[in-house]
Amino acid sequence: MEFKSPLSKLTSAIFVLAHKIILSEVQAQHCVWYGECGESAKVPGKKYNCNYTGPPKPLPAGGHELLVELCPGYDYGDRSLCCDVQQLQTLKGSLQLPLQFLSRCPACFFNLMNLFCELTCSPHQSAFMNGTKFTLFNDTAQNTTNVVEVEYYIGKTFANAMYNACQDVQAPSSNVKALSLLCGKDANDCNATNWIEYMFDIENGQSPFPIIPIFSDVPVSGMTPMNNKTYKCTEGLEDGSGSCSCQDCSPACGPQPVPPPLTPPWTILGIDAMAVIMWIAYVVFLLIFIGAVIGAWCYRKRRIESEYGPILDSNNPHNLNSDNIDQVDASCGEMLGERFESMLRSVFTVWGSFCVQQPLLVILGSLVIVGCCSSGLFYMKITTDPVALWSSPSSQARQEKDYFDSHFGPFFRSEQLIITTTLKSESIYSPYPVGADVPFGAPLDKEVLHQVLDLQTDIENIVASYENETVTLKDICLSPLAPYNDHCTILSVLNYFQNSHEQLDRTKGDEFYVWADYHTHFLYCVNAPASLNDTSPLHDPCLGTFGGPIFPWLVLGGYDGTNYNNATALVITFPVNNFHNDTAKLGKALAWEIEFISFLKNFSNPNLTIAFNSERSIEDEINRESESDISTVVISYAIMFVYISLALGHIHSCKRVLVDSKVSLGIAGILIVLSSVACSLGIFSYAGVPLTLIVIEVIPFLVLAVGVDNIFIIVQTYQRDERMPQEELHQQIGRILGDVAPSMFLSSFSETVAFFLGALSTMPAVRTFSLFAGLAVLIDFLLQISCFISLLGLDARRQEGNRLDILCCVKLPEGQEERTDGFLFRFFKKIYAPFLLKEWVRPIVVAVFVAMLSFSIAVTNKVQIGLDQQLSMPDDSYVLQYFKNLSEYLHTGPPVYFVVKDGHDYLSLEGQNSVCGGVGCNNDSLVQQVYTASLLSNYTTIGFNPSSWLDDYFDWVKPQSTCCRYYNSSGAFCNASVVDTSCVHCRPLTPSGKRRPTGNDFMKFLPMFLSDNPNVNCGKGGHAAYGSAVDLTGNETSVGATYFMTYHTILKDSPDFIDALKMARVLAGNITNTMGHTVFPYSVFYVFYEQYLTIVYDTVFQLVVSLVAIFVVTTVLLGFELWSGVLVSITIAMILVNMFGVMWLWGISLNAVSLVNLVMSCGISVEFCSHIMRAFSISVKSTRVERAEEALAHMGSSVFSGITLTKFGGILILALSKSQIFQIFYFRMYLAMVLLGATHGLMFLPVLLSYAGPSLNKAKVFAANKRYAGTERERLLNF
Asked: Which residues form the signal peptide (predicted)?
């Protein structure tokens, strides 16, 4: 036995240790594979790698550039690797899809490439990879084996870091996160491990053999997991690449924005503040008023005044026989008022006498004028276009719509179906080989889907006829890839299956199990709608046949969260091109839509329930509604006509019923009213002003109210009048006209001025109504004081000659005409007026009306704004079910486009950074701000991240991508699917080539991007998604206007739509401020809902202007009595405020229709108030109570019979209408305005005048004394 010294032992130990270290190092450097061998048995077109356990081999020089391209930043020393050039090329092809979507975030893509580069080429493969299965390669020239399965040991830290850097990266064209396209499931369900497992799974169609990832941060089974350095998404790379944008990296955004808190309701002690304030105000008023009434009563008792003594003016009795009356005592204002009154009286007296003396001249002249004016009706144009009806050409929304249409084309027409099934049972899908059961809603049953596909196909095959041409859906549909792909855009869940029964029935499996079927494909596509390969064993595309993605929120309804498999409704949308400027093409679309509606009305399937709507449906149903309501309107007017014709007559005895009736005069009066309407329509038709349905439906009602009231006043005043001695008929009627015409002039001129001022409104419907109404009221007044007075004179002669009404040639024997007061006049004079003005009744009246006013003020701010589109439909309309289903099932609102006006500089980095959302873009860029808004969707109503053509263009043009190529010989674009060696990359793989294109480079390749159709090799082609989003100008040498599209959240009612418009404009305003360039939002509904942003201001403006006009005209025409104008204006204002109270109680919203009615209510209220006011003003009774009683007695009956009773019968008939608009906005509001007008004019105003009416005009008293001195009228006045 040899003895070894301690030194020798130490030397031996060192040698052994060194040998082991060297041996270990050698073992760590060997490969697992090298090169490619046999073709994969399970993934055709893919190859296995060759088994090789030797040392790494030097990479041929031809692969150096490819290595730098794929694995930048990796320094492998002498470039001895475990892969050859072919493997690098395969790796490049396999990573094209991740490259296109993840390269937006450099850190994310770097980490991902790290994972695959280490797997494919690392010289240290054997340290973290282990080949577990091999097969013999059947190539006799090579004695080698295929690697058919490996284990890849990956550090958990690396996997988590890679996932964290990539989890927020967006796919702009798809409005989803990129991992939804790359993880095999929704991004929300994706994590670090299942993402890597999916990428290495053979079932995804990319991996030729199974790669089994094993995650650990510590050595396992002698293997050291790959745990290379990673970058966070907030970090820049060593090659100078910047950090990821906020949009693609939530940590870069800082704290998530928090929406401002909702404004709490204004309350006092937990009760609505307005209610408390108005209650307190009412109680205070009541206490003050009761105190004043009691004080005045005590004062009168102490002065031994009569019950009807005046409150404030009791020391100034003005009786005609009083010696105190002297014109000298009258003030200058009183004298001016009396002279103005006398002038009006004289002018109308002379004019009335002339009309009675020259009836033929006046009537023929009136007929000629009416005929000339009415001839304009031949040029009449009726506006039914909702845009022209509700939106002013100068409005912001209208101008923005015109801008959008002119640059991108008009928004498409939409034909939509919402399909539910009568089958109630859900089906359960059990994924193979493992996975939790997935419930599928009844509409997603395969048999139901087949039936729906049959229906969809039948709709595609609908044939219409237009001008002897056949029209099919293909002739009019939206085809974004035409002419390369003429498939129509059909947004349907069936497009996940390429609209094919065969695709829907496709399965993969064996005799025991089904590995994949339509369930698998559906679950993948709803998470990756833009995918061209579902990566299941089916490998079917999700992209629609038309070349665009099918977003699940557009084609499914009734699901919860993002569980699209729970859908209870299917939505199918057929976008049709809108041809605003091409009548022939638009006619074809309209013709096809008629057949579409007819087909679906007649369609029957016991398993399917269909609610549908066409672009023309609403307009068609409104027209049908108008036609169906013609009979209701005719009956309404007929009742009013019959009442007017019969009520004008004053029948004294049965013997003279045919003589004393005034049917012919009543009919003539109605014809005059209708003639004034025809003249107004005709004159404005001459001027080219189009009519609206509101004008046609509302103005006859308004003018009839005003005109009939005047007719009753004239006729009933004549019937009550006694002809003076030596006074002829023409003098009597002239005198009567002199008495009543100033009152008629007051009301008519007030309304005319108020209506004409209403034309200042920016709302077309209100402006048009105001113009037509103002002119119609004015013409009606002129015809009544001319033509009607002549006809009244003729009728009076007929009656005095005992000739029959209508049959005027028949004459009865001579009989004495008796003049007695009518029933209504006697009722008002003897019963109603004295009762109303009793000492104890008047305070109750004031208390009740002030209570009504207080309540109305308290609820005015609670009136809803908007017009529920369901109200515009008839009760039996098929569209109502569609609206109901739309609200119940849909989860997404209309698309919204953020339009950047032309002039923005996209060629510079600064201009790009202010818009884009990727690396290097500003944190307050357009895309970033819209993205941030989508995070607060409940507040901003922006539902999704915007699609960004600019960001997708930057990804598309990258030199690492196969998307942007051109023919080296011609410079023409070379699609990624073309295999041709003459196709070269657009940009070089250099540091400058990897940067964003600017200047001429930007414009050189942009047209190519916008013409590129997406395909398997390049999913970023912009033709389908952005073909219309960019307006190229200057022969494609510059960028004009562009848009960035997203979607609103679901909008169900008017407040939702109004809020969406408001918030979108706020967001666009912020973007405009940060960009320094104009950006505006556009959605198809904005043009209709913009009016509601200012409806409150418009309403206040219209009503205040009308009230001011009424105040001014009333003050002037009542002889410059300022206080009279104030009292009339206060009463009308109370009526209007009470109208708002009724609107709140009756659920009537504030919109253009109700605003027109409010303006009309203002006009009709003048009729109820002005006649009473003038009668009070000219009364010469001694006290206010007596003057109010006289005014109410003489004018109350005419106003009550002329307006209230006339309208009441006609209004009640409107309640029978099938139209919800008629029932709500006409029946309810008309009834309210008549009842409120009558009660205020015939109850409140007389009581108000008895308390606070204007003092007696001494000059008017003196003039009346002088005018009637020595006549029978003097005795009657003094009685």
From this structure: 1-28
Per-state percent for the chain, helix, strand, coil, to nearest 5: 55, 10, 35
Helix (H, G, I), strand (E, B) or coil at 388: helix
CB-count burial class (<10 Å; 0-12, 13-18, 19+) for 645: buried
Residues 942-976 pLDDT 10s:
988 888 999 989 989 888 788 888 998 888 999 88
Q: Would the pLDDT of 1078 be above 70?
A: yes
Cβ-contact 925, 916 below 8 angstroms? yes
Contact 876, 1218 (CB under 8 A): yes
Which residue shows structure tokens 């309210």? 1232
What is the percentage of the chain residues whose pLDDT exceeds 70?
88
| Total residue count of the chain as it appears in this document | 1279
Residues 1158-1193 have pLDDT tens digits of 888 888 888 788 888 888 887 878 888 988 988 888
Query: Rounded to 10 degrees, what is the CA torsion of 203, 205, 207, 208?
Result: 90
- Which one, of 429, 594, 441, 596, lies nearest residue 515 by Cα? 429
CA 674 vs CA 693, 708, 793: distances in Å = 17, 11, 21
d(CA 943, CA 896): 10
Token code pair at residue 987: 């940009």
Picking from 951, 961, 952, the residue whose alpha carbon sits closest to that of residue 983 is 961
Cα separation, 547 vs 406, in Å, equals: 25
The helix/strand/coil state of 872 is helix
Tokens at 1226, concatenated: 């006409």
- Ramachandran assignment for 630, one of left (phi > 0), alpha (psi -120 to 50 degrees), beta (any other): alpha
CA distance readout (Å), 1064 to 391, 865, 915, 943: 18, 19, 17, 11
Is 373 a residue whose pLDDT tops 90? yes
Interior/surface letters 1143-1167, b for 16+ CB within 10 angstroms, e for the rest: bbeeebbbbbbbbbbbbbbbbbbbb
- Sign of the four-CA dihedral 1208, 1214, 1220, 1225: negative
Our CA dihedral for 1082, 1024, 957, 76, rounded to 10 degrees, sits at: 120
How far apart, in whole angstroms, are the C-alpha atoms of residue 320 and residue 298?
A: 29
Tell me the β-bridge partners of 1080.
Answer: 899
Distance CA(280)–CA(272), nearest Å, equals 13
The residue type of 263 is T
Q: What is the rounded distance in angstroms from the CA atom of residue 1161 to the CA atom of residue 1138?
A: 11
Contacts of 261 (CB under 8 A, 6+ apart): none
d(CA 496, CA 499): 7
Beta carbons within 8 Å of 420's beta carbon, 6+ residues apart: 443, 558, 568, 569, 570, 608, 609, 885, 889
Distance separating alpha carbons of residues 1239 and 1157, to the nearest angstrom: 18
The tokens for 1195 are 């004018």
Amino acid in position 280: I
pLDDT classification of 813: cutoffs 50, 70, 90 = low
Q: How far apart, in whole angstroms, are the C-alpha atoms of residue 467 and residue 540?
A: 42
Q: Please count the other Cβ atoms lying within 10 Å of the Cβ belonging to residue 389.
A: 18
Report pLDDT for 1277: 45
| pLDDT single digits (tens) 837-879 | 888 899 999 999 999 999 999 999 899 988 887 777 877 889 8
3-state secondary structure (DSSP) of residue 938? helix
Q: What is the DSSP string of 999-1011?
A: HHHHHHHHHHHHH
Please report, rounded to a whole number, the percentage of residues in the chain having pLDDT higher than 90. 29
CA 165/CA 183 separation, integer angstroms: 15
d(CA 887, CA 1050): 8
Which among 698, 634, 703 has a CA at the least distance from the CA of 669?
Answer: 703
pLDDT of residue 1224: 82
User: What's residue 1080's pLDDT?
Assistant: 96
Q: Are 687 and 795 in contact (CB under 8 A)?
A: no
CA pair distance 221, 153, nearest whole angstrom: 10
